# Entry
Amino acid sequence: MNYFNNLTEIESLVSRLIDKLDASRTEHLELSVGDVRIALDRHCAPPPHSAPAMSMPAPAPEIPAVQPAPEMPSAPERSDAATVNAPLLGVAYAAPAPDAAPFVTVGQSVKKGDIICIIEAMKVMNEIECDRDGVVAEILFENGKMVEFGQPLISVK
# Structure
């Protein structure tokens, strides 16, 4: 079965995939459609090593002493809270529809198996379930924005 009509369609797909890779923190993306396989890696192999050109070193500029940065107070530890993380990359939605109430809110009790959000990946809406009982301490994703695999979605106490 031929999925692409011409090379332009493949080039367009590759261009869109590169844009998606650039917009995410994903390191590797692989796609197979029919007999076409596309693999993208964020990091390329280092260029071949060549002998350095001989030159005279430039005189070192005087560097002013750097003042240490003032110590910032550390954020309070959330040792009693655990996060529920995204199981896949996609766009996260807090509610089942734009005009609907969100699945969870801060302070709400949740049980293992409760739906906390939807992640849209490749036009498929995936309901994401809470993996523990507790109370929602914080919502850690932005509605309608891309989330990465493993990114914390909510914290639960």
